[in-house]
Amino acid sequence: DAGVIQSPRHEVTEMGQEVTLRCKPISGHNSLFWYRQTMMRGLELLIYFNNNVPIDDSGMPEDRFSAKMPNASFSTLKIQPSEPRDSAVYFCASSKTQGAGSYEQYFGPGTRLTVT
Amino acid sequence: GQQVMQIPQYQHVQEGEDFTTYCNSSTTLSNIQWYKQRPGGHPVFLIQLVKSGEVKKQKRLTFQFGEAKKNSSLHITATQTTDVGTYFCACDSGYSTLTFGKGTMLLVSP
Question: Hey, is the C-beta of A50 within 8 angstroms of any chain B C-beta?
Answer without folding.
Answer: yes
